[in-house]
Write a structure and sequence with these properties.
- By secondary structure, the protein is an alpha/beta fold.
- The protein has 13 helices and 8 strands.
- Strands 1, 2, 3, 4, 5, 6, 7 and 8 form an 8-stranded mixed sheet that branches.
- Helix 9 crosses helix 13.
Protein backbone atom coordinates (compact mmCIF):
# COMPACT_ATOMS: atom_id res chain seq x y z
CA UNK A 1 0.00 0.00 0.00
CA UNK A 2 2.96 2.28 -0.47
CA UNK A 3 2.04 4.36 -3.51
CA UNK A 4 -0.17 4.68 -6.55
CA UNK A 5 0.70 5.33 -10.22
CA UNK A 6 1.21 3.75 -13.64
CA UNK A 7 3.66 0.96 -14.26
CA UNK A 8 4.71 2.67 -17.49
CA UNK A 9 7.06 4.73 -15.33
CA UNK A 10 8.96 1.66 -14.19
CA UNK A 11 12.60 1.93 -15.26
CA UNK A 12 14.18 -0.80 -17.37
CA UNK A 13 16.87 -2.97 -15.87
CA UNK A 14 19.46 -1.22 -18.04
CA UNK A 15 18.46 2.14 -16.63
CA UNK A 16 18.41 0.62 -13.15
CA UNK A 17 21.97 -0.63 -13.24
CA UNK A 18 23.13 2.61 -14.82
CA UNK A 19 21.55 4.45 -11.90
CA UNK A 20 23.21 2.08 -9.47
CA UNK A 21 26.61 2.78 -10.94
CA UNK A 22 26.02 6.50 -10.63
CA UNK A 23 24.76 6.26 -7.08
CA UNK A 24 27.83 4.49 -5.75
CA UNK A 25 28.26 2.98 -2.34
CA UNK A 26 27.71 6.24 -0.44
CA UNK A 27 24.36 6.93 -2.09
CA UNK A 28 23.31 3.34 -1.45
CA UNK A 29 23.67 3.82 2.29
CA UNK A 30 21.76 7.10 2.11
CA UNK A 31 18.88 5.30 0.40
CA UNK A 32 18.85 2.50 2.93
CA UNK A 33 18.90 4.81 5.92
CA UNK A 34 16.35 7.26 4.50
CA UNK A 35 14.04 4.62 3.08
CA UNK A 36 12.04 3.85 6.19
CA UNK A 37 8.91 5.92 6.68
CA UNK A 38 8.45 4.34 10.11
CA UNK A 39 11.77 5.10 11.74
CA UNK A 40 11.05 3.04 14.85
CA UNK A 41 9.82 0.07 12.82
CA UNK A 42 11.46 -1.99 10.09
CA UNK A 43 14.59 -0.94 8.25
CA UNK A 44 15.13 -1.65 4.57
CA UNK A 45 18.05 -3.97 5.35
CA UNK A 46 15.77 -6.08 7.57
CA UNK A 47 13.02 -6.78 5.01
CA UNK A 48 12.05 -10.42 4.87
CA UNK A 49 9.14 -12.82 4.59
CA UNK A 50 7.87 -12.95 8.13
CA UNK A 51 7.73 -16.55 9.30
CA UNK A 52 8.61 -17.78 5.80
CA UNK A 53 12.26 -18.70 5.31
CA UNK A 54 14.30 -16.53 2.96
CA UNK A 55 14.51 -19.36 0.44
CA UNK A 56 10.71 -19.73 0.32
CA UNK A 57 9.66 -16.10 -0.18
CA UNK A 58 9.56 -16.23 -3.97
CA UNK A 59 7.77 -19.59 -4.16
CA UNK A 60 5.31 -18.46 -1.48
CA UNK A 61 4.53 -15.34 -3.48
CA UNK A 62 4.02 -17.40 -6.62
CA UNK A 63 1.67 -19.69 -4.72
CA UNK A 64 -0.25 -16.68 -3.40
CA UNK A 65 -0.57 -15.19 -6.90
CA UNK A 66 -1.78 -18.53 -8.28
CA UNK A 67 -4.86 -18.39 -6.03
CA UNK A 68 -6.27 -15.68 -8.28
CA UNK A 69 -5.74 -17.80 -11.38
CA UNK A 70 -8.12 -20.36 -9.87
CA UNK A 71 -10.87 -18.35 -8.12
CA UNK A 72 -12.54 -21.46 -6.71
CA UNK A 73 -9.52 -21.90 -4.43
CA UNK A 74 -10.24 -18.53 -2.83
CA UNK A 75 -13.93 -19.31 -2.47
CA UNK A 76 -13.18 -22.44 -0.43
CA UNK A 77 -13.52 -21.33 3.20
CA UNK A 78 -10.90 -23.76 4.47
CA UNK A 79 -8.25 -22.25 2.18
CA UNK A 80 -8.67 -18.66 3.32
CA UNK A 81 -6.83 -18.69 6.70
CA UNK A 82 -3.62 -20.07 5.18
CA UNK A 83 -4.03 -17.73 2.22
CA UNK A 84 -4.27 -14.68 4.51
CA UNK A 85 -1.44 -15.92 6.75
CA UNK A 86 0.84 -16.27 3.70
CA UNK A 87 -0.08 -12.78 2.53
CA UNK A 88 0.86 -11.18 5.85
CA UNK A 89 4.11 -13.09 6.04
CA UNK A 90 4.96 -11.59 2.65
CA UNK A 91 3.83 -8.00 3.23
CA UNK A 92 4.23 -7.21 6.95
CA UNK A 93 7.85 -6.02 6.74
CA UNK A 94 7.14 -3.91 3.66
CA UNK A 95 4.06 -2.37 5.25
CA UNK A 96 5.97 -1.47 8.40
CA UNK A 97 8.91 -0.08 6.47
CA UNK A 98 6.97 2.04 4.02
CA UNK A 99 3.62 2.68 5.74
CA UNK A 100 3.96 2.43 9.50
CA UNK A 101 2.54 0.22 12.24
CA UNK A 102 -1.14 0.90 11.50
CA UNK A 103 -2.14 -1.12 8.45
CA UNK A 104 -5.19 0.90 7.48
CA UNK A 105 -6.41 4.14 5.89
CA UNK A 106 -7.94 7.24 7.44
CA UNK A 107 -9.58 10.40 6.10
CA UNK A 108 -7.11 13.21 5.47
CA UNK A 109 -7.43 15.92 8.12
CA UNK A 110 -6.48 19.48 7.07
CA UNK A 111 -3.43 20.67 8.95
CA UNK A 112 -2.65 17.18 10.26
CA UNK A 113 0.06 14.76 9.16
CA UNK A 114 -0.78 11.24 7.97
CA UNK A 115 0.38 9.93 11.33
CA UNK A 116 -1.85 12.34 13.25
CA UNK A 117 -4.84 11.61 11.00
CA UNK A 118 -4.34 7.90 11.59
CA UNK A 119 -4.24 8.36 15.36
CA UNK A 120 -7.45 10.43 15.34
CA UNK A 121 -9.19 7.76 13.24
CA UNK A 122 -8.15 5.14 15.80
CA UNK A 123 -9.13 7.23 18.81
CA UNK A 124 -12.60 7.68 17.31
CA UNK A 125 -13.13 3.99 18.13
CA UNK A 126 -12.69 4.73 21.84
CA UNK A 127 -15.18 7.58 21.70
CA UNK A 128 -17.72 5.39 19.89
CA UNK A 129 -17.28 2.46 22.27
CA UNK A 130 -17.32 4.65 25.36
CA UNK A 131 -14.84 2.35 27.11
CA UNK A 132 -13.39 3.35 30.46
CA UNK A 133 -9.95 2.81 32.04
CA UNK A 134 -9.47 -0.75 33.19
CA UNK A 135 -12.14 -2.27 30.97
CA UNK A 136 -11.33 -5.13 28.57
CA UNK A 137 -11.41 -4.42 24.84
CA UNK A 138 -10.88 -6.81 21.92
CA UNK A 139 -9.00 -5.86 18.73
CA UNK A 140 -10.29 -8.23 16.04
CA UNK A 141 -7.41 -8.58 13.56
CA UNK A 142 -4.75 -6.46 15.26
CA UNK A 143 -1.83 -6.77 12.83
CA UNK A 144 1.37 -5.45 14.43
CA UNK A 145 -0.72 -3.45 16.90
CA UNK A 146 -0.55 0.18 15.81
CA UNK A 147 -4.26 0.83 16.53
CA UNK A 148 -4.08 -1.24 19.72
CA UNK A 149 -1.37 0.98 21.19
CA UNK A 150 -3.14 4.20 20.20
CA UNK A 151 -6.43 2.98 21.68
CA UNK A 152 -4.85 1.67 24.89
CA UNK A 153 -2.91 4.89 25.44
CA UNK A 154 -5.99 7.04 24.78
CA UNK A 155 -8.47 5.00 26.86
CA UNK A 156 -6.25 3.31 29.46
CA UNK A 157 -8.35 0.21 28.80
CA UNK A 158 -6.78 -3.26 28.54
CA UNK A 159 -6.68 -4.23 24.87
CA UNK A 160 -6.32 -7.83 23.68
CA UNK A 161 -5.52 -8.25 20.00
CA UNK A 162 -5.83 -11.37 17.88
CA UNK A 163 -4.05 -12.02 14.58
CA UNK A 164 -3.66 -15.21 12.58
CA UNK A 165 -0.02 -14.47 11.76
CA UNK A 166 2.56 -15.51 14.35
CA UNK A 167 5.17 -13.13 12.94
CA UNK A 168 2.81 -10.22 13.54
CA UNK A 169 2.31 -11.43 17.12
CA UNK A 170 6.05 -11.17 17.73
CA UNK A 171 6.25 -7.75 16.09
CA UNK A 172 3.26 -6.43 18.06
CA UNK A 173 4.66 -7.66 21.38
CA UNK A 174 8.00 -6.05 20.61
CA UNK A 175 6.36 -2.73 19.73
CA UNK A 176 4.13 -2.88 22.83
CA UNK A 177 7.17 -3.29 25.05
CA UNK A 178 9.11 -0.50 23.35
CA UNK A 179 6.11 1.81 23.75
CA UNK A 180 5.80 0.96 27.45
CA UNK A 181 2.27 -0.36 26.86
CA UNK A 182 2.77 -4.08 27.38
CA UNK A 183 0.90 -3.74 30.69
CA UNK A 184 -2.21 -2.65 28.73
CA UNK A 185 -1.76 -4.59 25.49
CA UNK A 186 -1.85 -8.35 24.97
CA UNK A 187 -1.55 -10.18 21.65
CA UNK A 188 -2.85 -13.66 20.85
CA UNK A 189 -2.14 -15.75 17.76
CA UNK A 190 -5.39 -17.20 16.50
CA UNK A 191 -8.16 -17.24 13.93
CA UNK A 192 -10.87 -14.65 14.56
CA UNK A 193 -13.39 -17.16 13.24
CA UNK A 194 -12.66 -19.40 16.27
CA UNK A 195 -11.43 -17.12 19.03
CA UNK A 196 -9.93 -18.63 22.22
CA UNK A 197 -11.95 -16.42 24.57
CA UNK A 198 -14.79 -17.10 26.97
CA UNK A 199 -18.37 -16.05 26.28
CA UNK A 200 -19.35 -12.56 27.47
CA UNK A 201 -15.77 -11.64 28.40
CA UNK A 202 -15.13 -8.22 26.75
CA UNK A 203 -16.49 -4.75 27.54
CA UNK A 204 -16.03 -3.65 23.94
CA UNK A 205 -14.63 -4.82 20.62
CA UNK A 206 -13.46 -3.24 17.39
CA UNK A 207 -11.93 -4.12 14.04
CA UNK A 208 -10.21 -1.70 11.71
CA UNK A 209 -10.17 -2.88 8.09
CA UNK A 210 -9.55 -6.48 9.17
CA UNK A 211 -12.75 -8.51 8.77
CA UNK A 212 -12.56 -8.05 4.99
CA UNK A 213 -10.30 -11.13 5.14
CA UNK A 214 -13.07 -13.35 6.54
CA UNK A 215 -14.44 -15.87 4.03
CA UNK A 216 -17.87 -15.35 5.60
CA UNK A 217 -18.46 -12.10 7.47
CA UNK A 218 -21.27 -13.73 9.41
CA UNK A 219 -18.81 -16.13 11.04
CA UNK A 220 -16.54 -13.44 12.48
CA UNK A 221 -19.47 -11.27 13.57
CA UNK A 222 -20.95 -14.27 15.37
CA UNK A 223 -17.68 -14.81 17.25
CA UNK A 224 -17.51 -11.17 18.29
CA UNK A 225 -21.13 -11.38 19.41
CA UNK A 226 -20.29 -14.44 21.51
CA UNK A 227 -17.33 -12.93 23.40
CA UNK A 228 -18.89 -9.48 23.92
CA UNK A 229 -20.76 -8.76 27.14
CA UNK A 230 -24.52 -8.14 26.78
CA UNK A 231 -25.36 -4.49 26.25
CA UNK A 232 -21.85 -3.61 25.04
CA UNK A 233 -20.64 -2.35 21.66
CA UNK A 234 -18.65 -3.50 18.66
CA UNK A 235 -17.24 -0.90 16.24
CA UNK A 236 -15.93 -1.97 12.84
CA UNK A 237 -14.51 -0.17 9.79
CA UNK A 238 -15.39 -2.34 6.77
CA UNK A 239 -14.04 -2.51 3.22
CA UNK A 240 -17.04 -2.34 0.87
CA UNK A 241 -18.21 -1.52 -2.61
CA UNK A 242 -20.38 1.59 -2.55
CA UNK A 243 -23.68 2.51 -4.27
CA UNK A 244 -21.63 3.83 -7.22
CA UNK A 245 -20.19 0.39 -8.04
CA UNK A 246 -21.68 -1.26 -11.12
CA UNK A 247 -21.14 -4.98 -11.66
CA UNK A 248 -21.76 -4.52 -15.41
CA UNK A 249 -18.97 -1.93 -15.70
CA UNK A 250 -15.75 -3.67 -16.78
CA UNK A 251 -13.50 -0.94 -15.35
CA UNK A 252 -15.26 -1.13 -11.99
CA UNK A 253 -14.91 -4.90 -11.89
CA UNK A 254 -11.22 -4.74 -12.85
CA UNK A 255 -10.55 -2.20 -10.10
CA UNK A 256 -12.31 -4.24 -7.39
CA UNK A 257 -10.61 -7.46 -8.49
CA UNK A 258 -7.26 -5.67 -8.34
CA UNK A 259 -7.96 -4.63 -4.75
CA UNK A 260 -8.97 -8.19 -3.85
CA UNK A 261 -5.84 -9.65 -5.44
CA UNK A 262 -3.41 -7.25 -3.81
CA UNK A 263 -4.96 -7.37 -0.32
CA UNK A 264 -5.77 -11.09 0.16
CA UNK A 265 -9.54 -10.68 0.05
CA UNK A 266 -11.80 -13.66 -0.63
CA UNK A 267 -14.32 -11.16 -2.05
CA UNK A 268 -15.42 -7.61 -1.27
CA UNK A 269 -18.92 -7.13 0.12
CA UNK A 270 -21.33 -4.35 -0.72
CA UNK A 271 -22.25 -1.56 1.67
CA UNK A 272 -25.77 -3.05 1.90
CA UNK A 273 -24.60 -6.45 3.06
CA UNK A 274 -22.54 -5.59 6.14
CA UNK A 275 -25.34 -4.15 8.26
CA UNK A 276 -27.73 -6.93 7.29
CA UNK A 277 -25.17 -9.57 8.23
CA UNK A 278 -24.71 -7.93 11.63
CA UNK A 279 -28.47 -8.12 12.23
CA UNK A 280 -28.50 -11.79 11.25
CA UNK A 281 -26.17 -12.73 14.11
CA UNK A 282 -28.20 -10.74 16.64
CA UNK A 283 -26.58 -7.31 16.78
CA UNK A 284 -28.60 -4.12 16.98
CA UNK A 285 -27.25 -1.67 14.40
CA UNK A 286 -26.80 1.76 16.01
CA UNK A 287 -24.87 3.37 13.18
CA UNK A 288 -24.29 2.36 9.56
CA UNK A 289 -22.52 4.91 7.36
CA UNK A 290 -19.51 5.55 5.13
CA UNK A 291 -16.84 7.68 6.81
CA UNK A 292 -15.19 8.29 3.43
CA UNK A 293 -18.06 10.43 2.12
CA UNK A 294 -17.75 14.24 2.00
CA UNK A 295 -17.09 16.37 3.95
CA UNK A 296 -14.38 13.82 4.79
CA UNK A 297 -11.19 14.53 2.87
CA UNK A 298 -9.83 11.85 0.52
CA UNK A 299 -8.31 8.84 2.26
CA UNK A 300 -6.39 7.85 -0.90
CA UNK A 301 -4.37 11.07 -1.12
CA UNK A 302 -1.60 9.42 0.88
CA UNK A 303 -1.15 6.86 -1.89
CA UNK A 304 -0.83 9.51 -4.59
CA UNK A 305 1.55 11.66 -2.57
CA UNK A 306 3.81 8.66 -2.03
CA UNK A 307 4.52 8.08 -5.73
CA UNK A 308 8.16 9.19 -5.58
CA UNK A 309 8.65 7.26 -2.35
CA UNK A 310 7.58 4.10 -4.16
CA UNK A 311 10.27 4.45 -6.83
CA UNK A 312 12.88 5.24 -4.21
CA UNK A 313 11.83 2.23 -2.13
CA UNK A 314 11.62 -0.09 -5.13
CA UNK A 315 15.14 0.92 -6.12
CA UNK A 316 16.37 0.09 -2.63
CA UNK A 317 14.55 -3.27 -2.52
CA UNK A 318 15.83 -4.28 -5.96
CA UNK A 319 19.41 -3.52 -4.93
CA UNK A 320 19.09 -5.30 -1.59
CA UNK A 321 17.65 -8.34 -3.32
CA UNK A 322 20.46 -8.34 -5.91
CA UNK A 323 23.05 -8.14 -3.14
CA UNK A 324 21.39 -11.02 -1.28
CA UNK A 325 20.47 -8.86 1.72
CA UNK A 326 16.73 -9.07 1.04
CA UNK A 327 15.18 -12.40 -0.02
CA UNK A 328 14.43 -13.04 -3.67
CA UNK A 329 10.74 -12.44 -4.20
CA UNK A 330 10.49 -9.27 -2.09
CA UNK A 331 10.72 -7.21 -5.29
CA UNK A 332 7.72 -9.10 -6.69
CA UNK A 333 5.71 -8.48 -3.53
CA UNK A 334 6.52 -4.76 -3.55
CA UNK A 335 5.52 -4.51 -7.21
CA UNK A 336 2.21 -6.24 -6.42
CA UNK A 337 1.54 -3.70 -3.66
CA UNK A 338 2.32 -0.85 -6.06
CA UNK A 339 -0.25 -2.13 -8.54
CA UNK A 340 -2.74 -2.58 -5.71
CA UNK A 341 -2.21 1.03 -4.65
CA UNK A 342 -3.20 2.10 -8.14
CA UNK A 343 -6.44 0.09 -7.89
CA UNK A 344 -7.15 1.51 -4.44
CA UNK A 345 -6.59 5.05 -5.71
CA UNK A 346 -8.94 4.46 -8.63
CA UNK A 347 -11.49 2.97 -6.25
CA UNK A 348 -11.33 6.09 -4.11
CA UNK A 349 -11.37 8.61 -6.95
CA UNK A 350 -14.35 6.97 -8.67
CA UNK A 351 -16.12 6.48 -5.34
CA UNK A 352 -16.86 2.79 -5.98
CA UNK A 353 -14.85 1.56 -2.99
CA UNK A 354 -14.56 2.57 0.65
CA UNK A 355 -12.18 1.14 3.29
CA UNK A 356 -14.03 2.77 6.18
CA UNK A 357 -17.72 1.93 6.18
CA UNK A 358 -18.60 2.33 9.85
CA UNK A 359 -20.86 0.00 11.80
CA UNK A 360 -21.60 0.59 15.48
CA UNK A 361 -23.24 -2.58 16.79
CA UNK A 362 -24.72 -3.45 20.17
CA UNK A 363 -25.20 -6.86 21.67
CA UNK A 364 -28.66 -6.77 23.31
CA UNK A 365 -29.05 -7.18 27.06
CA UNK A 366 -29.81 -10.76 28.03
CA UNK A 367 -33.52 -11.51 28.06
CA UNK A 368 -34.41 -8.80 25.54
Amino acid sequence: METGGGMEMWMTWGMFWGAMGALGAGAYYVLVLAGAAERKGKRAVDLGGGSITREQVRSSYQKYASFFEKPKQIEAKDNVPNFVDTFYNLVTDIYEWGWGQSFHFSPAVPGKSHKESTRLHEERVVDLLGVKPGQKVLDVGCGVGGPMRAIAAYSQAHVTGITINDYQVARARSHNKKAGLDNLCEVVCGNFLFMPFENNSFDGAYSIEATCHAPELKDVYAEVFRVLKPGHLYVTYEWVTTPLFRADNAEHVECIHGIEHGDALPGLRSYKQVGEIAKEVGFKVLEDRDLALPPAKPWWIRLKMGRLAYYRNHLVIALLSFLGIAPKGVVDVHEMLFKTADHLTRGGETGIFSPMHLLVLQKPEEGL
